[in-house]
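User: Teach me something about this protein's shape.
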Amino acid sequence: MTKKAIYSCLAVLLLVSVVLAGCAKPQPTTAPAPTVTVTAAPAPAVTVTPGAAPAVTVTAAPAPAVTVTPKPAPVTVTATPAPAPTATKPQPIKLRMVAAIAVNEAIVKYADRWRKAVNERSGGELTIDLIGGPEVIPAFDQHEAARKGVVDLMYAITGYYESAVPVAATQALSRLSSPAEERQVGYYDLMDKAHREKLNVRYLGRANFGAKAYTFVTKPVTKLGDLVGVPIRTSRTTAPFAKALGASGVTLAGSEVYAALERGLVQGVMTWISSFHGGRYQELVKYIIDYPFYETNDAILVNLDVWNKLPKNLQDLLTNTMIEFEKGTIEYTQGYERTLLIDMADNYGMRKISFASPDDAQKYLAMAFDSYWEQLGKSLSADEIAQLRKMLKS
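Assistant: First, the predicted structure itself:
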């Protein structure tokens, strides 16, 4: 083909292209895509084929993908409550109690009733064990054991520790009608204060009241003079009285009295009916001088350090139970005293005797009280003696 022909063809093609470009419909304007969480599909390819002209392919670039990340919904977490702590039950308090005389004697048995009542009413919070009597700790050493906390409680004979707490011995000299009256007139408070200060113990109260001391003899007497020179077993409490009567006071341990009576070393005993019967002295002694004199002289004591550590509810329990038992002690004490007297009369031939002269009877009782107050005057002031004698109507 000649150059002229080639140029002619190119010119025709150029002309056709211009015509076609002018006749083509305008393409619609694509609106912007809304903002949605959609990934736009790629635009279709538009292919224009002009006659014999080579195909021109225009490919629209795909719109960029718009990714919307949804906001996570709030998550509510409910915490499981922790289990409530289990309260630890306090361990029961255990205390030890000793008795100044044999635990089988009637006066100790009433104190033991008090102990058992406290244990039961405490609901398991407190247990008091009665560990024994003088066979565990000698009677005259028990107050020191209570002072030092070797034992926690003590059924005490107050005359046994007169040297440590002189006012304690005045229990025997009370002529009041009841423990309640002793509390009313201030005697209880006086006793408690003295025991706290001098013996490191709490004076809870009386375990017995209403039983009296007597003089028991192996031979009958009809007047005061018949007692002069008679060997009589006495205690610290009754020794001044025996001396005032002109009798020969003999101090013996309780375990030695029966044998001394058998051998005639003593011919009488000054003591309380319970102790007399408990020692079986009625087997050898057949006469009781029927003028009762001293009041029961016993008490329940608690070591002060132990007391101060007890919770208030247990302190109240001990105190209130003691007051309750004091109210019942006269009936109990006098009841067992009558029972023992009947037994000694019916089964051992015990006889009550009295002096021929009423004056002798009055002198006998006056000697009992005056001699002991005189003895206590060695350790108590004259003012204290006067106060106590008035308080106790003694």
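Now, about its shape. The domain at 93-209+296-334 is CATH 3.40.190.170 (D-Maltodextrin-Binding Protein; domain 2). Confidence is low (pLDDT under 50) at residues 9-68. If you'd like, I can walk through any region in more detail.
User: That's plenty for now, thanks!
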